[in-house]
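ok so for the tutorial part 2 we go from a plain amino acid sequence to predicted structure tokens. step 1 is just haveing the sequence, like this:
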Amino acid sequence: MARLALIQSVKPILRCPDRTYRAISTTAIKMAEGDTGGVRSGGQAQGDAFSKREAANEDLYVRQKEMEKLAALKKKIEEHKKHLEELEKNVAETIARKE
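step 2 — the prediction. this is what the tokens look like for a chain of 99 residues:
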């Protein structure tokens, strides 16, 4: 009897319209490709003028950086060649003195 009375006294509290209930989602949100700012591929993205211009600008930037690196390497090679010539000259002078 006490059990029935307890259940009947608790039910109105659980059904109270003032209380708001919220469902808790346990699944991860699924995102479509491109939603995270990733690279778009195929379909409409290939014909997009902005995408083409952006790709061209990126290619130009990479090419300029590669050219800068190449110029620096060529300069370094020339410096090493000059240093090698100086060393060869010193070796030749040292051999000439000994003879």
